[in-house]
Amino acid sequence: MRALFFCLLKPSDLMSWRAGRCTPMDKIHCHYHAAQPATWTCRPCARSYGDCCVPLNADAPDDAPKCALCAGTLEFLGAANSAQPFWERIPSFFAYGLQSGPLAFAALLALAGLFLPRSLLLWLLVFSVATKYFHSVIEGSSQAERQAPSLLSAFTGEGFTLFIKQLAVFMVAFGVLWLAADTGSRGLFWLVNLGLLLVMPASIIRLALDKQLGAALSPEQVGQVISAMGWRYLILCAFLFMLWQSPSWVTMMLAGGLPRVVLLPVAAFLFGYFGVVMCAMMGYAVFQYQAALGYVIADEEGQAAYPAAEFLRRKALADAQVRIKEGQLEQALEILTLALQRAPDDLALNERFHQLLYGLGARERCLRHLAHYLPLASRLSEPQAVTALLNARQLQADYLPDDALVCERLAAALLQRHKPREALSLLRNLHRRFPDYPHIARAYLLAARGFAEYLGELGPARQLLQFIRQRYPQSSLLGEVAALEATLDRLEKTA
Ligand SMILES: [Zn+2]
Ligand SMILES: [Zn+2]
User: Fold this and answer.
1) pLDDT tens, residue by residue, 437-456
2) What residues does 42 pair with on adjacent strands?
3) Where would you find the membrane-spanning parts of this chain (predicted)?
C-alpha cells in the first residue's frame, strides 16, 4: 500500500477543523490509546482513532475504514498528526541531498560554472532549470517522498515558468527593499530587510505548492503558511538562514587556497546541494503542518494493511476493545461471536471472548466456551490456559476439563507455577475418568512428584508409583518410577 493521496480540504472543513476540539498545533491522540497519535476521526461520535484501532484491508484498499462505534466512514487526519517534527529530522535532509538526483543536479551547476560562457540567456536557462528542480524537491518532500526527483525531471514536464514567477517574487522583494532604502532611514531599511527574509520561505512554499504568482505574493496566503506553523516557523527560518549562509562560508574558507577558476564551480556545487537541503526541509515542514495548511497527505510508507482474513480478525479485536472501553460489553460479545464463527480456533479472539464472558459473570456461557477454549489454549499458550482454568474454578469449584491430555498439560503447568493442589485435582482418578487414555502412567508419575516434592506427602506418592508398577509393568517410565521411589526412601529415612 504505497498509495499516496493528496487532496485539498474545502476551506469550510479547514475552518471547522480549527474551530473544533483542537488547534492544529496540538497532536490528537487515539481516544483509546493515549500514547498513540490519531490518524482517523469520526466527527459524529467525536472519537479519534490511531492506527492501533483501525486496521486496513490490503485486499480492498479502496474501502474506507469504518468507525467502530457508528460504522460511519472515518475521516483521515493525514500523517501529519503522527509526523516527526522537522527539527528532529535535520540529518535526513542532509542525507536527502546526497542522493543521485541532487548530486547530479549540483554537479551540473558546477559544470555550468566552469564552462558556461557569460551569456545572460544561457544563465537564465540554467536558473530556470534550477528553480524547477528546487520546487519539485519542495513538492516531493511535502508529500513525504523520500526519493529525490531525478535530474532528468528538471528538464522535462511543466514548470519552467516557475523561474519567471520566482524571479517576479524576488523583484517585488527588491522593489520593497529599494523603497525602504530610499527613505534614508537605516532602521527602517533593516526592519524591512529582516521582514522580507522572514516572509520569503513562506512565499517560496506557497509558490511551490500552488504554482500561482498571486498566491506567492498574497499576504493572506503567505500569512497562512506562517500562522499554520506558529513560532516553529521561526525555527525553520533560523535553519534555512544557516543553510543559506553555508555555501558562502565554505567558499570563503576555500578562497585562500584555491584559484578563482576552481572556486566558482565549487560555489555553484555547494549552492545546488544546500539549496536542495533547504527545499527538502521546507517541503517536510509543509508535510508536518499539512492539516493546518489545508492539505491531507498520507505518509508514503503508509499504514500496514492486512490480507482480508487477518484484517477481519484484527478489526474484530480492535472493535471489541473499543466497545469494552466504552462499556458496551454486549456489543463487544456480539463482535467477537461473529469473528469466532469465521475463525473458531484463533487464540487471541478466544482469549478476549473468554475474558469478556468471565468479566460479565456469564457463568453458563463461559463454561460452555471453556470446553473449546481450554484445549486450544493448553496447546498454544500455557499461561493463558492456566488463567482460564483458574477462572473456571471460580465459576465452578470442581471444574474439570473433559479431555485427559488437557488435564495433564494443565497439571504440569500448574505445578511449575507452584499450585500443587489445583494441579493434583486435575489428575485425580484420571484412570477412571479416561480409561482409554494412553498416558496414565506419565500423568500419575507427575502426580506422584507433585505430592512428594510440592506437598511433602510421601504416602500418596508411593501409592501412585505402586499403581503404575502394577497396572503398567511394561511401561518405559519404570526407570523414573524407581528413581523417585529411591528418593522417597531417602526422604523417609531423614524424616
Ligand atoms: Zn487506539
Ligand atoms: Zn462514529
Assistant:
1) 999 999 999 999 999 999 98
2) 47
3) 93-114, 120-138, 159-181, 187-209, 230-250, 262-287
118, amino acid identity: R
CA atoms within 13 A on the CB side of 304: 10
357 Cβ contact partners less than 8 Å away, ≥ 6 residues apart: 333, 365, 366, 369
Task: Give the span between the Cα atoms of 69 and 370, in whole angstroms.
Answer: 28
**Amino acid identity at 2:** R
Ligand nearest to the CA of 30: 1
Beta-ladder partners of 295: 8
Neighbouring CB atoms inside 10 A of 222's CB total 22
Ligand 2 centroid – CA 17 distance (Å): 17
Amino acid at 172: V
Task: Write out pLDDT tens, residues 372-420.
Answer: 999 999 999 999 999 999 999 999 999 999 999 999 999 999 999 999 9
Q: How far is the CA of 74 from the centre of ligand 2 (A)?
A: 7
Pick the ligand that lies closest to the CA of residue 55: 1
Mean pLDDT of all residues in 270-298: 83
CA distances, 397 to each of 392, 414, 430, 474 (Å): 8, 16, 18, 37
C-alpha 492 – ligand 1 centre gap (Å) = 59
Residues by chain with Cβ below 5 Å of ion ligand 2: 42, 45, 67, 69-70, 72
Ligand 2 center–CA 76 separation, angstroms: 13
pTM of the model: 0.59
For residue 49, report the distance from its CA to the centre of ligand 1, in Å: 5
Compute, in angstroms, the gap from residue 66 CA to the centroid of ligand 2: 8
- How is residue 226 written as a grid cell? 506562517
Identify which ligand lies nearest to the alpha carbon of 36: 1
The two beta strands, 305-306 and 56-57, are parallel
Ligand nearest, relative to CA of residue 47: 2
